[in-house]
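Replying to the earlier thread about multi-chain prediction with a worked example.

Input:
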Amino acid sequence: MSEVAEIPVLPDGLVAVVKRECATCELVAPLFADLAASGDLSVYTQDDPTFPASVAAVHDADLAVSWHHDIETVPTLIRVVDGVEVERTVGWHRTEWQRITGLGDLGADLPEMRPGCGSMSVDPDLEHVLRARFNSDGLAARRVEFATAEDPFEAMFERGWTDGLPVVPPTPERVHQMLAGTSRAATDVVCVVPPDLVEVSVEKVAINAVMAGCRPEYLPWVIAALEAVCTDEFNMHGVLATTMPVGPVIVCNGPGTRAIGMNAGINALGQGNRANSTIGRAVQLTVRNVGGGRPGEVDRATHGNPGKLSFCFAEDEAESPFGPLAQSRGVPDGRDAVTVFAGEGPRCMVDQLARTPEELVTSLAAMMVSQPHPKLVLGFDAILVISPDHGRLFREAGWDRDRLLVELSSRLERDAAELVRGHGGIAEGLPAGFADAGPLAKYRSGGLLVTYAGGGAGLFSTLISGWVNGGTGSDPVTVEVTY
Amino acid sequence: MTTVLDPTSEVRPAERALLQRPRSLDGHVVALLDISKPRGDVFLNRVEERIVAAGGAVKRYRKPTFTKPAPVDLRHEIATQCTLVIEALAD
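Result:
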């Protein structure tokens, strides 16, 4: 919350608010010498501190006086008694000015009336700046009003603020509630969001989190995921711009996943859980609305995938034989963290008959070898989501993460001669120069992220294929959640 | 009226293409918006006479104050009731 500026008190006597860039103010400017001579007069000038020349004016440089005293028109003439405004007139009305000043011949040679000009404090281009500067609610974002007869949900569709589904109207009240989910100041910059490379404040994230349907306790997770996707390593610009069907897949770890009620069980990768569905959605809405990443513009995906609405799940850490993904990537035990991955939609890998870990891992490798093409290796990462029914085989045999990766790796190796372009009647493949490279691994070191989630019944696991990895594409990024 | 906070970066101006100027007033309802500056009504009264004489239909509106943008309800009312707008500045 930003500090609320103190409201300036008007001095007793006559108070005039003027600006040089107003013909009516110029017209009345010579009168101020007479007014100053006859009593207490304070003149506030909005634009030019040397105006009016007839008296020494106070420069309302930050427009605090004009804003707090609701000056809509200049000139405005006010009479203040004991700190309280008792009279006000706007523009030049000779009889009004004569009455308020008590000078019956004031401006006798001026026209009877001239309308004033708009005060700088109500300039539409300045209003949101001033509101942020002075408003007591401390929210800086521009206010957008919908007409009484307008449906706010339709109005938000029309403005292009949604991902194709309805969004919750981000009223100031809801945004305040959302901001209570973090100790960070609303004005803090979270990160720079591609593709427009715009600094996003905690407040803007909160607005998009409201729209996505988040509860306040999800906000730290949204912020962490945004910090992760807006790194050079993750390369959100490229993830948008690629024609491949990838978007941010968010894997959540730590006790906080249980505290906010995330789903790591039945249908963990599907619909139905508010946290899973809205955390990923808030990230994507922020990229869309703040970063400007929209389908058909920078987002050039050929097909896309429905996970680009939200693809976010938690691991079933209590049952996992592998330990949490975040801890395998360096996060201390017991801490909450997100790992983001540029991934496609999930693919089910069926094996209902394996009864030993060796049978199962051989079967899984046979399916994984085709991702994203059987003849492409090392250039694409993946997330493997082991289900409880499959995981049981590994746990009972004492296989941990490292053992599983070693066993998979040996079964995924292919001789480079089989992978070169044209081999097997398939044009796709590695350049011919690799023909003598010998056995090649499917995944680069660290390129296969093993996770554990899903319902208690079902002899299936899931593979989430990635986009091009490394410097030309995207690397997975893990960020701790801070509250 | 619902007030929401802008979820965008606020750095992209809203770009709206101007509509093509109509060749005639046939079938159009013209909104005459008085911004509440003195004697703007004098100008708009004359404009209304000319439009009506040309066979056009007119609806009259008035902003509460010239110092602020038209209230959102008034803009919505004009947008839903009229096809053309003439705004009087006055002075």
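The helical segments of chain B are 40-53, 72-81.

Feel free to reuse this layout for your own posts.
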